[in-house]
Amino acid sequence: MPLIPPRHSLLRSLLTALALPGIVAVLIGCVIVYSLVKEEYDELLDLSLSNKAQLLLQIRELSGTQANASFEETGLAPEERVRFWFLDADGVVTDRSALAEPLPFPPPICHRNGSPA
Question: What pTM does this model have?
């Protein structure tokens, strides 16, 4: 008696043929979405920091005194709080937040017109 190989259904053949490409497509899609979300999140953080810097500058200019971060949440841990420095046109630190340590790099040496010395 000859053995007849079992027949596979068309659905089973399609699923086995498309399983690996489908998994690869899902993984590539996840990598693309992750990189896009990470890039957009970085841009949102940059925008948030520049907006906060503009706000601090306006507070300092309007009050005429040392700018404090009284609008910040005091319940945050020290490493999560904002540190800021105010620099004049020559790059000299004129003011800084309470948690800010001295700048780790020397100020740039520039002429008044902004060109390097």
Answer: 0.48
